[in-house]
Amino acid sequence: MAERQPARIRLGPADLLGDRTLLPVVAGGQHLLLVRDAGRIVAAERACPHEGADLSLGHCAGGRLRCPRHLAWFDLEDGSVSPGWSFRALRLFPVELASDGLWIRLT
Is residue 73 domain-resident? Predict the structure, then answer.
């Protein structure tokens, strides 16, 4: 049996983030955070996996998203949490930039 691909969901126009680094969005019923870092855009779950802090209030720099509550940070390549913290990685979703806007596949 072939594995079913998740549906593509259009997030909005290509310039949806404008000049922002972080933008909260809802896609497929999930609260996500679009993150622009070093010319790329990724989507992450919006709530910190530690205690649910709103990561849209955090800060992004150097490929890392910092939680505003406990100052732990997440690597935007694989979602891993900074050393010294023992909770699961942040869920990340690739964002596709197409001629008709930004798209995501949720798994």
Answer: yes
